Amino acid sequence: MALEETVQRSRHGGREARRRERAQKSAGPGRPYISRNIPTYDILSEENLLKIEAAADRILAETGIEFRDDPEALDHWRRAGARIDGLRVTFEPGMLREILRFAPAEFIQHARNPANSIRIGGNSVVFAPAYGSPFVMDLDRGRRFGTLQDFQNFIKLAQSSPWFHHSGGTICEPTDVPVNKRHLDMVYAHLRYSDRCFMGSVTAEERSEDSIEMARIAFGRDFVEENCVILGNVNVNSPLVWDGTMTKSLRAYARANQAAVIVPFILGGAMGPVTNAGAIAQSLAETMAGCALTQLERKGAPVIFGNFLSSTQLRTGSPTFGTPEPAIGSMVVGQLCRRLDLPLRCSGNFTTSKLPDAQAMTEGTMSMLAAVHCGANFILHAAGFLDGLLSMSYEKFMLDADLCGALHTYLDGVTVDDNQLAEGAFAEVGPGNHFFGSAHTLANYETAYWDSETADNSPFEQWELAGSDDAATRANRLWKQRLREYEAPAMDEGLDEALKDFVARRKSEMADAWY
Amino acid sequence: MALEETVQRSRHGGREARRRERAQKSAGPGRPYISRNIPTYDILSEENLLKIEAAADRILAETGIEFRDDPEALDHWRRAGARIDGLRVTFEPGMLREILRFAPAEFIQHARNPANSIRIGGNSVVFAPAYGSPFVMDLDRGRRFGTLQDFQNFIKLAQSSPWFHHSGGTICEPTDVPVNKRHLDMVYAHLRYSDRCFMGSVTAEERSEDSIEMARIAFGRDFVEENCVILGNVNVNSPLVWDGTMTKSLRAYARANQAAVIVPFILGGAMGPVTNAGAIAQSLAETMAGCALTQLERKGAPVIFGNFLSSTQLRTGSPTFGTPEPAIGSMVVGQLCRRLDLPLRCSGNFTTSKLPDAQAMTEGTMSMLAAVHCGANFILHAAGFLDGLLSMSYEKFMLDADLCGALHTYLDGVTVDDNQLAEGAFAEVGPGNHFFGSAHTLANYETAYWDSETADNSPFEQWELAGSDDAATRANRLWKQRLREYEAPAMDEGLDEALKDFVARRKSEMADAWY
């Protein structure tokens, strides 16, 4: 007899209602983000951390970083005392660390629904969907270019799940919208179809400004001046180059007191050395420079220390994702970031698989566990990532959402108190008997155990009778059901109109550009 | 241009030869087991560990454990000073810990090929195939009862892979052999088709004795008296019952100075409480009792502290595997075991999926990473496990073997030295250039980066042209290729004859029994 059937006899109410209640309890409005209850996994000694920091300092002092197409960034560095030689900037050891002391160790990103505002930093953990793929795919239609419809669909799927805390940014490229106007439709969609936090565009300074302006319309100009309501994810052009598009965007976010996420993207062997320690040192150098530039633009602006390590299949030159080197390297990046006392973005649910199959979830799970072990506060790419980020997969999104749910339980760790120790239960049950109907089980079953939506735990015969589906097939049914059931969060009509007006006006001011 | 092509121009020899060389280097005879280079992941405070230990002590002192059908075990406990009430044994706090001081913190298990002998304990990590499923399955034939042929196939697949260190035990049940004779064919197969360490039978005292006797034939009677050459995996009949079949077997192994692996199998909510801390305390109590009994049988006999936590889907009563509670609980079990200074067996590659699909590898990877993080020295069920251990899957075996390979790299951690820091490379390459042809890359590419056998990292178009295979399909091709290529390790003909004679004689002494 199943446990819940046992329990049902002694209680009122239906099974489904209790299941919903259980999901609510652990995931509802009371849990806008995770507060980790397990320590970070610190794998490297103080001595070795110091060596990596010293290597990063030497890279910064001897080779330096080029800042291209942004004279104001060079002016910032000049005023701060860095050495400038053409576009090349070199830094005295310790200089960037000194500047970074102004950046907050943690901050609040406010959501349209205040119950969904999140803390980024300290022991908080936030899951956000994957970011940036040109393609989308599902089991029915295969791979194709992403559209605005797909983009909206993924926002709705994320919003419908209790396991995300953030609506993300460019979940997929809406390639049916002109390149220079996409950001307007994307920011509108985040604001309209989600009531969680979100990210704006960074692909041009004016698109960053537009994104922030839309946030001002939603949250009020004065509020935005004092509070973080939007993130912008900017990439280093590794190795050791910051280009103007990115630095102008990161400065736009900082200037508006909004948070830039500073992310070197290092494919080892290509944009960095093939050895982990060297790639980590490079990443540290590049990220410190980017984070420090936000502080030169506006002292005290929130900023997130980001990282995206990856490796290469040296036989073919193909990038690889979800491999062991970046996973274990993430733990070191986490340690280095905490020594700078900055919020961390690191790792995510990475894979090169072209399908939501065994490879995808082996690589994704290893990578995603690294993200939670290394102490990442903001985990971008937590769901949907396929094919080295070229595709956003509807099915993998649901499988990954489920993993995010499991990680809520994982990060809760092991609680040790009288109830959890269950001492009375042993006397009650005694040797050789089962715990199904014990008082302790009845008192705890509603909150006990993560219950997956996509896993099949039924007996083989039952699974076979039901059609022998694999996990991807179950995920396919689930995302369709979620889209059918989706209801948009309430939005003030005046706000909706104001946002639409802004989008329409800005679009009318520009000719379409498709590149 | 791919890196290896770049490199090929400056070196002699073919690509395939170098690939084999690279695999050899990291996995060959020089690496019979892994010496972990990253710390264990310790998640619980001293205070909470003490609380769990105290709870275990109270379970042992107040509820106690039943020892059924083994009067000699009760005699052992009586002589050791435990309280006996019928079959129920209770223990003064501290009594078992005192006995366990005699058990070795680590020991060598010797392999037929001395180069494959392993260290169990300390910072060593050993991977062994899954154990005990009645069914096998592959993509061609689906699920069916396991046969001796399947059993031999899995031994050959394990032996062919550099990523296992142990041949395992009852990899699948050879159901075409009578129950009372299987152990003879299984031990013979391990000795004949593998030259790594292995496990013997435990399903009856005389089968344990037979297994050990065959080890004596292979290693010499005197050698076996002084050295561990065979393991026996015995399960507690949780909650809090040790039955005679198991205690007689564990005593047989201990008596012969061979190592028993002591494993409570607790499905939370059924054989233990639904709360993690309570299940862990129960497990600690049960394992300490089993381990201590080996020391009462023979002081100083090697023994392994084992654990198999799992959870239940409370909606249905179905067992679940690869879920977050056992994963995170394993870290605590590891801490508790190290406080007893015993070698640890914990977790493995668990799943309830019926296919080698996304679910299988999400659950398996979470579970397997817990095994390496918690400090397990002997990781049974590292490959093949499907359907809650009811099926041994040929394809999942290959996918899991690949994950075991990745974990070799993972456990190597991040090395920090001049070469790994690659400082010269930054000056050489400079901002904005790539590292493909740099001197540092050329010097390191042969040992850089884990290279998966089952993952597909190729571009989408190339993958599509090649047939759009998923990982399971690639694994299907791979196991067939490995079986075709398999060559048995050399064995002295006299030894082979002696083993065959023993098997034939023992079989002739018993009528077939099928239950």
Automatic annotation (TrEMBL), chains A, B:
What's the EC number here? Answer: 2.1.1.-
Q: Which domain of life is it from?
A: Bacteria
Q: Does the keyword Transmembrane apply?
A: no
- Which enzyme type, at the first EC level? transferase
Keyword Methyltransferase listed: yes
Keywords, in A-Z order: Methyltransferase, Transferase
Q: Where is this region: Disordered?
A: 1-34
A molecular-function term among this protein's GO annotations: methyltransferase activity
Q: Which InterPro entries does this one have?
A: MttB-like_sf (IPR038601), MTTB_MeTrfase (IPR010426)
Q: Give the transmembrane region(s).
A: none
| Origin species | Albidovulum sediminis
Q: Which family does it belong to?
A: Belongs to the trimethylamine methyltransferase family.
One Pfam entry for this protein is MTTB
Q: Which GO terms describe its biological process?
A: methylation
Q: What is this protein's name?
A: Methyltransferase
